[in-house]
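May I ask for a single protein's sequence together with how it folds?
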Amino acid sequence: MTLAGSANAGGAFDLALNGEGRALRVGIAQADTLLANVVDLDVSVRRDDTGLTVRRATLVSPRARVTAEGQLAEGDGAFDITASLAEASDVAPVFSGP
């Protein structure tokens, strides 16, 4: 993993995280299935006096792809999140197929 950026004592930061994880676990069976293999992560985020801005957040594994971007401010916010699964049954056994 590579982490680069800056932060100050007032809570502001500007960070970029890029890397690869293997056999990640979060303790939720459905999520663990999606994270079981190699996972690529790419995140760019900033927090300042206007709020939190996620310029990009991307998680890619053989089983799933999730992207997000958006902004949160006091009393306001909007995010665009897109997710796709190789197999829907990975998270809900009642489904079959992609």
About this structure: Helices lie at 29-35.
